[in-house]
Amino acid sequence: MNNTHPTPKHSARWWMMCLTLMLCVATRAQDKFEYFWNTDPGMGNGSMVAAAGGEATFTLSTEALGYGVHMLGIRAISEHNEEDRDIYSPTMWYTLVKADPTISRLTKVEYFWNTDPGAGNGTLVDAAGGEATFMLSTEELGYGIHLLGIRAMSEEDGSGEEYYSPTMWYTLVKADPTTSRLTKVEYFLNTDPGAGNGTMVDAAGGEATFMLSTEELDYGVHLLGVRAMSEEPGSGEEYYSPTMWYTLVKADPSISHITKMEYFWDTDPGMGNATQQAIVEADGGAMACMELPTDALGEGLHLLGMRFATGDQWSGTMWYYVVVADDEVVTIERIEGYWDEDPGYGMGFELPFTGQSPSVVDAAEIDAPTDYGTHILYVRALASNGMWSATYMYELCMNADPQIEFSNDTVCVGEQFVVYNKTAGATDATTYSWDMDGDGTEDSQAGEAFVYSYAKAGTYLASLSVKTVGDCATTCYVPIVVLPTDEPKVTLAASSKTMCEGSAIRLQATATDAGDHPEYEWIVNDEVVAITTVDTLMISDLYDNDKVQVRVISSNPCAAVDNALSSQITIRVTPLPEVSIAHYFPLYTSEEDVVLKGGMPEGGTYYVDGVEAQLFQPGGNEAGNYRLSYVYADNNGCTNEAVTTLQLRAPGALSLLLGDVNKDETIDVMDVLCEVDLIYGRMFPTYTLATADINGDEQVNVVDVVGVSGIILGDRATAKARAAQRRVQQRISAVNALTGVDAHAVNTSEVMMRFDLSAAKAVSGVQFDVTMPEGVELTSETKGLVVGRKADAEDNTYTLLAYSMSLGAVPGKLAVKATLPINMPEGVYTIEPENVVLVDASMNMLSCNVGSSRLFVGATTGMAQFEGSIQVTVETVGLHIVNAAGKVAMITDAAGRLVLAEELAGADCLVSLSALPAGTYVVEIVDEYSPIKVKFLWK
Amino acid sequence: MKKLFFLAAAVLLSGAMQARNWRINSIPEAKADFPSITDATASADVKDGDVLYLDPGCHLTGTQSVSKGVTIIGTGFNLGGSEMESSVQNIEILCSDVVLTGVHIQNTLYASRDIYKNVEVVRCKIGSISASAPMLVASCYITSGVNLGYNARLYNNIILGAVGMGQGGIMRNNAIVGAPRYSGNRMVVATRCTIIDNIIINTYDYYPEDVNNTLDNTDPSYGNDIKGNILSTDAEHAYANHPSNAYVGATVADVFVNEGMYDERYRLKEDSPAKGAGYGGNDCGPFAGYYPYVMSCRPKNIPYIYDAIVPNHPTDNKITVTVKAKNQNE
Prior knowledge:
The structure holds 2 protein chains of 2 kinds. In chain A, 2% of the residues lie in helices and 40% in strands. By secondary structure, chain A is mainly beta. The longest helix of chain A has 13 residues, at 719-731. In chain B, α2 (37-42) links the parallel β1 (21-24) and β2 (51-54). Chains A and B meet through β18, β26, β28, β29 and β30 of A and α1, β24 and β25 of B.
């Protein structure tokens, strides 16, 4: 807006103004006002003025304004307490003319909306005295985009000649506050850059006004496009209004005197014949604007031609492409139909529908023509824009209604049956065409019933076509099943002819000529195990060499035989591998990771609570029980599983006792993981390096022995024993002699043998057990043993425990009060393997035998004393069992499951344990007099 | 998303209320008003401004002559469901003020004289166009070449062949894909034309790699305004005088989804180089610009029946019909 330097010829004279505004608005106590010049900066972005009491008086300085016409926008702001936001009044518009007082003789101000009516023809505002300020009412304006032109008029002294300033242009958008989401206004000159790509003006709050500078415009005719943009809340989707078009003419005053302009759409009517607008030359050159209404244009791309004239001389035509959009949503207004002859668009019968687009005629019932022959139903739709759809055609055949009945529902091959013609509505002109086998060839033209038969089995679609008028044919179809007379047959297949014990295989029967609904009898070893209507069976409970077959029971009534039997299939069933897992003593959460092992046969997979694992991490788990399983698959693909429980505990006060091997928080005989054969004079404690080397010195010796079990029989023998003793005394002079004359102790279920106390100073032999008589306590000594004894008890079974609490060597000699080794009288002995079960440091000598995983204690000489008794010795390859001919050795695992049973053929047998995985077992030999039950550790 | 404005059959809308509608179908049993377009426009009953509807299922053979200023409305093509298409073998336009929309022209559209004005061909499937009339061809699927005369306007078409344009023509937002074997293997030959926001891809396997393979006449002396186009010409062979094009050596696989049938294949990929590459930042190709392409070329603002269940024989002398109709608002 720098047109403040009028040419000398058209000198305008401007005054300088200073505005004092008093605004009074019915507002709240916290109201304020904001104002701005020329271009609306958006709600809340103008200059603020406090308005206590709803009134404000303030002085607006116009010093900074250039000379010329200015727009002042003012609006009130009230604070909405409840919603904590400001509410804005509509903007009040004022026009202010600032004139140069040294040269201006301002007399009037003129303004107009949208189309320049020509100088002097707009709304005039008196500016006598050189000042002009007035309020612009926008009430009469419709919602939309408007162009405001304002110019000043001065009058030459004396001559009364009027001069006009250049027109100042403002764009004002008036939005409907109830519906608008106006956010921006954009405009462009001459070429539409595309929606969103023009010059944007903020219109937050639903209003916008901005000054349009024409300073940069070239002289000539220009096209101004303005449109509003709204934004959908939430989605942010932008919508643009149709573009409003204006022409602007800017003429070079030095070379032209434009008097008029004209425009046309699409087709040039010729110079001077288009829509015209007169132009009055103004100060600074001709400037005119004209609104270009597009309402009468159809949607689409249009060509706009514009030119201007100086006198009668027209300029060349300037061309612009203008796209006119039609956002009207067209809907369906009518759907109509008619039969055969078109009554004209809109004259058919109406088909009721719902919906605007899509629109649906939902199952409307229409009267059909009554006369026989071909008829066409025509359907078309009318849209709200007056356009019709194409006309769609649907053919209808009015005819007799063919119907078929058969004497039989199903027929056999070659069987004759009756076909009935039940056509309804037939006339004398009705003709018939039968196609009984669906091959497209006519089989009969019978109008009445006829006899028919089929040569081949199958399902046929018999049809009857009838014609009454012309070629209009109506056909009905009826299926018929023709059954074969062939005997049924069946074959059997198995998904596998080998299977693992306990698994399943699928048997598949394939029946032919057995009818539509045969039954199947599934047979195993000539016994029917299942009857089904389906041709497959999953079966699992088979044994090796079982023979399976299937019999089909035909549902075909046409066959002479009603069943057929398949050939047999022999199924081989492979036993599952024997799988075991070693017992695990409880673990403490404070312990190191444990490598999972002990599963046999080797090569399987460990799972902890169903998850494959190689380690168990006590520290990484919570206390509780865990299911440890070991799964092994043999070369046949058969899989078996052994399961044990991993007990994980939080450590307690007794948890860390050295020697508490079995984690029962007590150090006792059960911590000694040696199994000792029940052989007099021989003990076979089986130490493992892991369990026996308690002190971790990489040697297994006496200092590791924290307990050894032993039994001393009670010092009072039974009467029978005493009698036997006397007989022995009569025969044997040596007091130390020990005889096992009574191997059948009473009430000593755990004791295998008893010993005679053959002499006053002779003591009992040694046996092993864990059972103690009630009330007997064991004491621990580092020197010698004090064996508890229950007075007057018969058949006492004592368990001896010797503790080396400090894990140090037992010093000195062992004073044996109860002589542990057999064949030794009371006395003091050097502690030697031959003599004692519980020994002190001298037992080191045995450590050399640990390498073979066995510890030999005691004298083999004692064996001879007990000939005839069942004796079990754990050897490296199995159990050596003597004196048990004809009996059965039954071996159970730690879980009590029978894992091996072997009849003992001779008096001296070796029971091989090679098939057993390492672990703890119990062998039991049932004998009327001397049952034996021995727990042993097999490695 | 910006809601853009576009055109559809503007001329027919303006006069449709007063115009008469006529059905065209060559099958006598259809009892249409005329068996051909030639007969219809030759009839004294048919006036300028009337509307000719091609019946669904109607296939007009030979060359149909259009001798009056009518609007001819077809069904579009590649329709789903139970709809039937209509088609015409050839059409020859012999007058001004003709609008074709939704018409499937199997072979060629002719408009041989440049005195025929106001000819608009919008949303049609066409084999090829050979015309001198200054016609508008917009939103069409053209399966072969296009040869147009002076002042023709070619907007938003999918053209599977080469294009020749007379002086003063406008080519905007087209996808031009093919393997021309003439004029130095280039896709477009034009003089004094505006060529903006097109996708032009030469798929001919044997053109030398070291040449421009898309646009002929790029020297300024030919007066072409070429900008905002995606080209199969690579940057090394860019037109020095027209720097505002995207020389990406584009291939069909780079630019289009290349899946589906017919026009569906030419939708832009998500990462297509044509996205935002046009003059002013718009997309290149037929789906942006003034006449955004619509699949199947259904004519705009024309209703159609897309599904119907009509028995072919009555029950108790009545039939029960279900009809579903829509308006093509897009």
